[in-house]
Amino acid sequence: KLLACRLGMSLTSNKGPDGTPTNQSPALLEEMNWGPFSLVFAIQLLHHVRETHLSLRPPLQVANTIMPTPSQLLLKETHGEELVRQVEEFGGYEAVARRLGLACIPEALHRGPPQ
User: Fold this and answer.
1) What confidence tens digit (pLDDT) does each residue in 51-61 have?
2) Are 24 and 14 in contact (CB under 8 A)?
3) How far is C-alpha 80 from the geometric centre of its chain's CA atoms?
4) How far is CA 48 from the centre of its chain?
């Protein structure tokens, strides 16, 4: 239920499989509001992150799964500009990263040390 709320999905019931009420009150979940969100956007963004990480070769500078920067998203052939727009629409890079469980680091660190 918490994940559903976090991803902006609606809950249909607060009853268990046997029809008895669950321990978690729907009122508690209603108080937890992360704002609007799109599951389609989350899937597209996580797909981009997965493709990026699959193309990397070890050893990785940062072992965490990292939120892509605006410039990295704009390099994407399809949906790049739309993903950048939606990141801003859904609260910005740090908010989206937290919501999806991605590390959010400054863009300068993505580029590595100066040459």
Assistant:
1) 888 887 777 77
2) yes
3) 15
4) 11
